[in-house]
Amino acid sequence: MTARDALAFVKTNGVVLESARGPVPNLAARVAGEPIKGSWWAHQKAAQIFHCSRALRDSREILVCRLVEGKVTYVHRRLWPALVKLHQQFAAGRLSAIREVHTAQGKHETITIAFPEWVPKEIVTKAACLTFTEAAEMLPLKLRPKRQH
Fold it and tell me: Which of 19, 28, 14 has its CA nearest to residue 62?
């Protein structure tokens, strides 16, 4: 799988876990071609998984957050209006964007950008045009809110 394939995988599925098991597909298993037991770092395709995951983390088309069960989750841009519309249906912090930055010391740090600070204006506009039901139906079935609160 290439970085382009990984982006297409997320675009097709809308919501994808980086490596955790859960109610939506996960990237690591897709790249590996099989379920992974234990850490994906030990898998023979670890370098390819790392390359694809970092390409997704760097993409402007992907929100990296902890939407699904608090695990690293990729959400394709086409679903962002639904997330904005339904934001009150998700636990606090689940829609905060997470980004890796490189420090001057050469280390990697994860920073969090709170919701809705990361949301582009055009996404807010699109979200305002959606009904609750329309937004919910955009999400994978297992992530859809049951009813409006």
Answer: 14
Alpha carbons 102 and 22: distance in angstroms, whole number? 29
The closest alpha carbon to 136, from 128, 124, 144, belongs to 144
Taking alpha carbons only, the member of 19, 13, 103 closest to residue 57 is 19
Question: Which tokens belong to 99?
Answer: 């980004």
Q: By the 8 A CB rule, do 96 and 65 touch?
A: yes
pTM above 0.90? yes
Residue 149: band (very low, low, confident or very high) from pLDDT cuts 50, 70, 90: low
Q: Is 99 within 8 Å of 113 (Cβ atoms)?
A: yes
- Give the tens place of pLDDT for each residue, 74-113: 999 999 999 999 999 999 899 999 998 888 888 889 999 9
Q: How large is the C-alpha radius of gyration of the chain?
A: 16
What interhelical angle do 46-58 and 3-13 show, nearest 10?
60
